[in-house]
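Side project, low priority. Logging it here so it doesn't get lost.
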Amino acid sequence: MTETQIVWIKQLKKGNELAAFNLYNSYAKAMYSTLTRMTNDNDVAKDLLQEAFVRAFRKIGDLEDPMAFAGWLKRIVVNIGLEYVRKRKIYFEDIQDQQDLKSEELDEKLVDNKTLHNAIKELPDGCRTVLCLHLLEGYKHREIAEQLGITESTSKTQFRHAKQLLKTKLQHHYEY
């Protein structure tokens, strides 16, 4: 958070539209990426991004500490993404907790961001949603389960399955 951004937040609280524009430009790309990963749909992500900023700007008076703006905005964005996911009633595959779904991490060799992003987009909706919320947004499986109306066990299994699918999709990047 820069000093300039803190000034923009204070100005936004006073109704300054230029401050809103500047804050939007500062945070839109990162928030859009979050929504794109959650929805797997660029057009929906754009619509939800606009909704998130409208909601944030309307509630800016509730934000006590300008330094907390980024986290506060991210929470609004994720909540709007979760609302969308819940309305779509994403199907969470009934995956047996099998031995072949070990919780091994992806090999630590480098995979470029675009390849990884595309591989994540190809995951089944349930797996992608849980992976993004847990790995990329830092939610605990208990929180994911509460938000999505699934069990904690289902969240963990979806996450393990997502990692296994990603590993398989990215396998050719590890071969020399």
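Brief comment: Residues 134 and 140 are 6 Å apart (CA to CA).
Revisit when time allows.
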